[in-house]
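User: Batch of two.

Assistant: Item 1 of 2:
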Amino acid sequence: MEKGKTKTSTAGKLNDRGLKGFTLIELTVVVFLIGLMLLITVPRVRDTMLTDGLKSTVNHLTNTARELRSDAVRNQVNYVLHLDLDNHRIWTYSADMTPEARKEMKDRPYRLPEEVTIQDICCYGKDKITDGEATVTFFKKGYVQPAVLHLAREDRHFTLVINPFLSTIKTYDKYVDFQGGD
């Protein structure tokens, strides 16, 4: 190397194969475009996930059923999921609660979002319930009264299948009719 000369960077300068690296303008444009795409898509995804009343009701019922099964076994007390089809309300209580405590739970129900309805409930050994009130019992031994719940919002339907011995709840994004609650 000759005295007096310093080596300079070749990034961004032309060589025999083209440009090396990216300019600040190119990086800025790419970051801007990614930000623009996120700005457009994230609110739609968020709104779909968080404001869809039917999906949130399905999630609430699924989580509540899991909790009730777990609480029944842990506390060795039967728990009841109470569904009011006419007034679109859901509440829970344990079998050892006093009548006053049950009334308090009934007065603080989960209210279904607007336009979401419980179409019907099929409990094993019983006729399909389409109005009034219905209950699903979670027993302290770890099993549950088998039931099929049908939820609807406009032309969309969900079916929840509560199995007696499985801890999972099957969900279908359509109306699935099970004969005899099987």
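Item 2 of 2:
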Amino acid sequence: MFKNLLSRIIQLLSVVVGLVLLVFILFQALPGPEQILSGQRTDNSTREAIVEELGLDEPVYVQALGYLNDVSVISIYAESKTPKGIKGLCITQGNNYQLWVKLPYMRKSFQTQQQVSAILWGAFGGTAVLALAALIVAGIIGIPLGVLAALKANSKLDYTIVGFSTLGISIPSFFSAMLFSWIFGFVLHDFTGLSMTGSLYELDALGENYSLRLDHLILPAVALGIRPVAVFIQLTRNTMVEILNQDYIQLAKAKGLKESVVIWRHAFPNALNPIITSIGGWFSSLLAGSFFTEYIFQWKGLGKVTIEALQQSDFPIVMGGVLFTACVFFIIHSLTELMYVWIDPRLKHS
């Protein structure tokens, strides 16, 4: 267990380092934030001052190492350059250097000067709610249809359901998001009552209080859940077909047990392992893959915040959003594997 945990930590660190270096390199192709912050009519001296203040005058590798030092749990700072927003334990060293054991520091937004960690945590709730809602939609629709297809294997109904799932896998989430937004939020708005855009909480007409708008969740959740619905259908169908042909299922039928008992108490529980693994994997994928869906529906989440920051060259938010999503993806995958072992104890010995 300890070796496995150590291996995963090393993998996470390597992913974080790789992402930092990659995003730093790609960010060089974007317009400098000093152009946006200073405006078009500002003179060169003002822009140079902004560049120096943001540390953008240093070589790329120096900026990358500085950012890795900030997001690291153990960091070393020159006493005069210690960030004000870090939280942790400081052990003062000689030669005016400080050793810190701290929480990861993701710096401040170029635009608002707010802590990036606070911005991301505020947006993460919206992304988590959307991903969970999409996963629930996928489970409610996909698993029963998969069971039904397995029970009617090689029939016209089976072919229809599998054909629907194949089509669903082929449709990108951003395309289904645009399609659903236009059809159900605009063309059929008078019938559905749904809006093309909107977040979970919305200001009232007076702009004073927030109100909960669950109706805004319907279209983005369904659009985001189309692909996992298709995957759940095929996975459930194939697993159930295999299990229904097992000897112990045939024996249960020979004993005269009701078909519903055979299906739901004997066959379906044994089909849960791959389904739960897929659910965990899809939840982390939906968290990371909801960026364009959130932006299309203007749903306040990590995706919308990160894309808007990218448009404004707000580098700390972009970097924070990428690393935050990668860490959440890694943690959920690890928890999914632990749950898989808990469901099937035989894996503990392998």
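Residues 2-102 form one domain.
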